[in-house]
Amino acid sequence: MIKLNESKIVDGYEREWDALFSGGAFRLRYRRDPFLDEISEHLQNQDVHKILSVPCGDGINELYLCKKGFSLDCVDISSEALRKFKRRIGRRPRVAVYKFDAFKLSEKFQNAEAILSLDFIFHISPKLGEFLSQVTRSLKPGGVLIFNFYTPLDDSYQHGKKIGKKTYKVIPNILIKYFTLDEIKRAVEDAGLTLTLVTEYVRKDKTHYGFRREKGDFHTHRGYLVYCTKKVNGDERQKTAI
Ligand SMILES: C[S@@+](CC[C@H](N)C(=O)[O-])C[C@H]1O[C@@H](n2cnc3c(N)ncnc32)[C@H](O)[C@@H]1O
To answer: Nearest residue CA, atom 12 of ligand 1?
Structure first.
C-alpha cells in the first residue's frame, strides 16, 4: 500500500476532472443511470419539483430529469464538465448551472427540496463527513438526499493503486473508495440525516478510467442507491410553527 494524502487528492480535483472530461486516454461513460425513473417516482411522491444536482458532470442524467418535468440547479467544479453540460442541455429555462465547490454548497444553496449526488461520494471519501454536513445545511427540514455508492462486489474493486482501506487511486489522480452499507448508515446519521430507503443495483457501464473489461467494452458496477431525509429537530419544528 502506498501512503498518500487522500484529502490533498480531493482538493486537487478541479484539474484532474478537467483532464478527464477533456478526453485523451480516458473515456467517461455516456449512458444515463438506469435508476433515474425510480428516483423520479420517489421525488414526485415526495412532491419535489426542484432538484439540486451535486455534482452534475456533463449533464447526462440532468437532461433526462429535466425532460421528466423537474427544475434543476446543477453544480460542478470542472469547467470542462460544465462546457459539455451546456452543449448537451442547451438553453432551458428550468435548468441553472453553477461552477461551484460541493464542499461550500451551503454558502450558495439553502432550503433545497432535494439533493441528488450521483457517482460522487466514493470519490471524496476523506471528506465525506464534510460533504454530508454541507448537504444537510443546504436542505430544508424534511428535504431529500439521494446518492449512490459502490461495494467491494463491484467489478472495478481493487483496480488501481491501493492507498487505504478499500481505497484505490486510479489514473490520473482520482480516488475510489468502496463502502459497506453499515459505513454509509453511520455517516448519514452523523450528518443529521435519516436513511429512509436503500435499493441495490447493478449497472453495466462503458469501460472508463481503464477499468478491467468484461466481454467487449463493458464492466458492471454493483452498489446501492440511498434515500435520506433531513431530520426535523425540535428547533426547526418551532421555527416552522412560528
Ligand atoms: C464521476 S463524475 C459524476 C458526475 C455526474 N453526477 C454523473 O453521474 O454523471 C464526478 C464529478 O464530480 C465533480 N467534482 C469533483 N470534485 C468536486 C467538487 N469539490 N465540487 C463539485 N464537483 C466536484 C467532477 O468534476 C465530476 O464531474
So the answer is: 55
pTM above 0.85, yes or no: yes
Classified as helix, coil or strand, 225 is: strand
CB 136 within 8 A of CB 193: yes
Q: Which CATH architecture has domain 6-241?
A: 3-Layer(aba) Sandwich (3.40)
Which DSSP state fits 16?
H
Cell (9 digits) for 129: 463527513
What is the tens place of the pLDDT at every residue in 114-145? 999 999 999 999 999 999 999 999 999 999 99
**Whose CA is closest to atom 15 on ligand 1?**
13
Each residue's pLDDT tens digit, 22-80:
875 455 556 788 899 999 999 999 999 999 999 999 999 999 999 999 999 999 999 99
Determine the 3-state secondary structure of 99 from DSSP. strand
Residues having CB within 6 Å of any atom of ligand 1: 13, 17, 55-57, 60-61, 75-78, 81, 101-103, 118-120, 123
Pull the grid cell for residue 170.
486510479
